[in-house]
Specification:
- Three copies of one chain form a homotrimer.
- Chain A has 292 residues and is of the alpha/beta class.
- Chain A has two domains: 135 residues, Aspartate/ornithine carbamoyltransferase (Rossmann fold, 3-Layer(aba) Sandwich), CATH 3.40.50; 145 residues, Aspartate/ornithine carbamoyltransferase (Rossmann fold), CATH 3.40.50.
- Chain A has eight helices and eight strands; from the N terminus they run αβαβαββαβαββααβα.
- A four-stranded parallel β-sheet of chain A has the order 2-1-3-4, sandwiched between helices. A four-stranded parallel β-sheet of chain A has the order 6-5-7-8, covered by helices on one side.
- In chain A, α5 links the parallel β5 and β6.
- The relative contact order of chain A is 0.17.
- Chains B and C meet through α2 and α8 of B and α3 of C.
- Chains A, B, C: It catalyses: carbamoyl phosphate + L-aspartate = N-carbamoyl-L-aspartate + phosphate + H(+).
Amino acid sequence: MKNLLSMEHLTKEEILHIIARAAAFEKGEAAQLNRTYNVANLFFEPSTRTKTSFEMAERRVGCEVIPFDAGFSSALKGETMYDTVKTLEMIGIDAVIIRAKEDEYYNELLEGIECAVINAGDGAGQHPSQCLLDLYTIYKEFGHFEGLNITIVGDITHSRVAKSNANALTRLGANVRFLCPAEWAGDFEAAHSWEDVLEDSDVIMLLRIQHERHAVSKNFSKDGYHEEFGLTAAREKRMKQGAIIMHPAPINRDVEIADELVECERSRIFSQVRNGVFARMAILETILKERA
Amino acid sequence: MKNLLSMEHLTKEEILHIIARAAAFEKGEAAQLNRTYNVANLFFEPSTRTKTSFEMAERRVGCEVIPFDAGFSSALKGETMYDTVKTLEMIGIDAVIIRAKEDEYYNELLEGIECAVINAGDGAGQHPSQCLLDLYTIYKEFGHFEGLNITIVGDITHSRVAKSNANALTRLGANVRFLCPAEWAGDFEAAHSWEDVLEDSDVIMLLRIQHERHAVSKNFSKDGYHEEFGLTAAREKRMKQGAIIMHPAPINRDVEIADELVECERSRIFSQVRNGVFARMAILETILKERA
Amino acid sequence: MKNLLSMEHLTKEEILHIIARAAAFEKGEAAQLNRTYNVANLFFEPSTRTKTSFEMAERRVGCEVIPFDAGFSSALKGETMYDTVKTLEMIGIDAVIIRAKEDEYYNELLEGIECAVINAGDGAGQHPSQCLLDLYTIYKEFGHFEGLNITIVGDITHSRVAKSNANALTRLGANVRFLCPAEWAGDFEAAHSWEDVLEDSDVIMLLRIQHERHAVSKNFSKDGYHEEFGLTAAREKRMKQGAIIMHPAPINRDVEIADELVECERSRIFSQVRNGVFARMAILETILKERA
């Protein structure tokens, strides 16, 4: 693996390898890297958990992290992404972790760049490290993917998480379904009522209502969304035994999920964050090991 | 000590312990910590000295500092302080150092959060690490607190420093007095003329006129404030032998204090900054030692 | 060398020493420093390559880097540069690396400041670390400076790079010429046509059109500038054998230089970035070695 750009590029074997290494790191194993690698985190959009998670994972696998302030860089002077990354490569950076608002910004990095590129979210495109931590979370819970009913709820067409996860989970044998207001389904086939998916789901994966990308639907207030598509306390009671709740966060409490459910027994929302460090250590090790 | 939120929570013994450890660190002693702790600095308001002082202290006690860019975090997406801190905890952070503009923002962190919380300033509330470095500075100078006349000058009602210091110094036996324009006294009993406090003060502690919080009084221009309530060269000459001048900084030169006095013999303004690193090392050690 | 403020302050011997140490670092030699020095990077203007290059160089010579967020510091509260730097000195910082928009901002740091000051760009003034990496790049290529024809092309009067380089290269024996639109020459004697300089130049050093400082000339569109003063593919073919192309970057592709030439055989544009880390290691070592 030279880069991690999109889940579509990963084979099933590569996915399972990363899950296995994440599990090993969680058990306390050290990264198998022969030297100190230099990395830089280029976050052109706000982020708390993805950025700090990478910062922690980078240190835990022994990287040197060179600070890069995306909001105060030469990108402001109109420098291209290629020139920015090539510059970092010449400075001695081995891998860049990038979040940017342009879909597939990484296409201009496919030729001429030697340093590894890890996509930490591209516009409404992919978010592969989030996907891999979600897969690791599901795997830890059930030990397999085959036959699991996994329901993704929310604004599917604008969600990086939905696309990355649907692709990978389907390939791993899970049965992925969507639930959302009709107007948000786009080209996806989706249920429009909890009744169709609530009681047989093994995993309910809630997506964030992205206020900063587009308003809650014209047809829904926040309260209205919660009532019709949110996970309420009454709905949680009807969930299957052993079923879990996931959310990539940040959460809009009482919109996607009732405030009181955020840390309930079924919730893996904060566990996902914890698992994210191990998944990202696995990603970094896998990619950096291939370098001299 | 699990957290450091407000001086009111510290016993006299805890205060004296931190002063003693600060003194030990200044003499070159190493921190008594058994492992590397992970910390993050969440500064939601601009800061130079408090933030860089913590950054330095954290490294000197052997912490790993995970960068957190408050101005570019998911707080922008409306994430609650609880969810932000819980996320950092799950990522593996042992202690967060927080500055925020809401008074007592930390109240929502009292339940459910395991990681330690160190308050680096809450709105117009408290600023306990500044207070502890001020106490250390006074202790180094006089060797005791009992009976010292300490005059705090400036916008008392809006000052975190004034509140934290008045509480602690009074408990330690000092005689704390205030000097300010009548309209800024609030509920405090205060002198309104230097004549009442100038010649018998052991410590004159100037507060910053906070342009960014509220303008200099309607009744005072900057020059007018300096003339009536600033420490001028003429006033400095009338100070008691051995008396010292303190200021938490940043300074407005020629407003709170005459430019020529900033580094005069009585001034401990830059020494306070130096002492701050030792005081914060003591705070970090005291809090982190209690963790596994 | 206590500070590095302007190329004019460096003797020829000091320049050659830094070039020699840069070469040694490039060959893998370690820095000759006896302790860990603390440094802080104060960038009050956006920067990618200078800032990350210093961050890397600092780590490679074994420094501890204390983060400083210039865009979120007490400078926003009106703190003077002197007070900011003095504060960092009291916190334990040994050297500050500063970029600021004021010409010769460092004049207020010449007295009373003990920590070393390295100028990483002052307004339209100097940019000595860029100059030293340029000199190192030229020296690596030709092994000497005497008699080289070096042509600097672009907005000379507003360029820190032009001023720093012209001064130093002339002292080192090179023959420095300028090429620019008549209205940009200021007090410099400059050619206004490529015909006068293209074929006998050993080094063509392109300057960035600084959109953020002033617009492309009223008399030139971007395309017009490229046609008349840009390095086009046709012009590159007429360059002398062994001649090289340099540019401090960030590049405006197809303005100063044709897109296809950026990584051509003659181009040292990305090599300059690589050399910058070694030059800055040499600067840091030279300055820090003189401290206790």
